[in-house]
Specification:
There is one protein chain. The protein has 291 residues and is α/β, with parallel strands linked by helices. It has helices spanning 5-19, 50-60, 89-120, 137-146, 164-167, 177-187, 201-209, 222-237, 256-261, 271-274, and strands spanning 34-41, 45-46, 65-68, 75-76, 81-88, 125-127, 160-162, 194-198, 214-218, 244-248, 266-268, 281-285. Helix content is 41%, strand content 18%. Helix 1 (5-19) crosses helix 2 and helix 1 (5-19) packs across helix 3 (89-120). 36% of the residues are buried.
């Protein structure tokens, strides 16, 4: 992923937030001084966000040179150098904290996602949600992909996802699933994905009859999910549409393996983006021989 106009604007806002009218500390020192430094890992992780760090420096000062030493999506260990930076000392130090804040967070998301993907061992996809940091969604979902995860919808505009509160808006009843799917197919392109959230087996069976693209199994036990999978598979064997089943709600590192074993096709986890373990990375000045 290369920074586009939207992400570049967000990066500019990040710089403005921290630098404001200028770095009063760096202003105390020689403006002609140069600095070579590396972003160095203090622990293991998965690389994510190097392309944005390069863009951050270039937006602030085009004379700053960066070189990524670990490719996006690759693993690294403690002491590994991730990005080399060289340029005017003031410019490097003014961008340092913004760059570290973003890099540490994105590497943390990619690292956590990779760990979840490894646990499910190919039994199903691991997806993110819309539970992202405001304005950081494109960056955080990018990190999920680098960790081997799959992006759910980017926003309210690119997929229909009917939840409990939406159902109360239908005059035909809270569970008029066939009407909901019919209206969605009529109003939007056939390529628009239609997903419906269900809470119990009875609701699941009625929603399955409407043949949406996906059914979201919300806060169900793994045992109940298994029953839903079996019922869906029986319908498929009888010639019915293979509706994808997605598990969601409170799933974490301790429970994801059991959920995956239930046979669902997808597991969505808000914790990938709202509760990552930040990867500890620092910016260390280096000599030419230390690059």
């Amino acid at each position: 992923m290369k920074p586009d106009e939207k992400t570049s604007d967000l990066l500019r806002q990040m710089l403005e937030e921290d630098i404001g009218d200028g770095d009063v500390t760096s202003a105390l020192f020689d403006s002609s001084a140069s600095l070579q430094a590396v972003f160095r890992a203090r622990c293991e992780g998965v690389m994510a966000g190097g392309v944005f760090i390069t863009k951050l420096f270039s937006l602030h000062d085009e004379t700053v040179q960066t070189r990524t030493l670990v490719s996006e999506g690759d693993s690294f260990g403690p002491g590994d150098n991730l990005i080399h930076v060289n340029g005017p000392a003031r410019s490097v130090l003014e961008v340092e904290r913004t760059a570290l804040n973003l890099l540490c967070r994105l590497c943390g998301i990619a690292t956590k996602t990779k760990r979840m993907v490894k646990i499910v061992a190919g039994h199903c996809d691991v997806l993110d949600t819309r539970k992202t940091t405001p304005l950081l969604r494109p960056f955080e979902k990018y990190a999920v992909k680098l960790g081997g995860g799959v992006n759910h919808r980017m926003g309210l505009y690119d997929q229909v996802l009917v939840k409990d509160n939406h159902l109360s808006l239908f005059a035909g009843g809270r569970e008029d699933f066939e009407r909901i799917v019919r209206e969605a197919r009529k109003k939007f392109s056939k390529r628009m994905v239609v997903e419906i959230e269900v809470d119990d087996l009875d609701q699941f069976k009625r929603a399955l009859d409407a043949e949406p693209d996906i059914l979201l199994l919300d806060n169900m036990s793994p045992q109940l999910m298994s029953k839903c999978v079996s019922f869906r598979d029986e319908r498929v064997s009888a010639g019915g549409k293979r509706v994808l089943l997605e598990a969601s709600g409170g799933i974490n590192e301790k429970t994801i393996d059991e959920v995956a074993a239930s046979g669902v096709d997808r597991i969505s986890m808000g914790a990938l983006t709202y509760a990552p373990v930040i990867v500890d990375i620092g910016l260390d000045a280096v000599e030419e021989s230390d690059r």
